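(Fold this chain)
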Amino acid sequence: MRTSRDVYLTIGKSSYTMNTPIDNEVLDRIKALIDEACGEIVKGAKQEDILMLTCVRLAYSLDTVNEKLKKILARIEGENKNG
């Protein structure tokens, strides 16, 4: 396991410090997902609202991927039973 270090994440209008052993490659992917989920921030939006909307968008993305994976797994399992 890597040694933990402080990293900085910007979400909406604020930056946050997080102590983590996550490597830079994974951290870059996480930051990209957060940036994508934040989308274009509505001017005047409160930070709390930005965080809530980002959380909902990330949850929606996870749910979408989860449903797709379930369908793929069901198809594979069906092929294995028939094959």
Q: What stands out?
A: The mean pLDDT is 91.
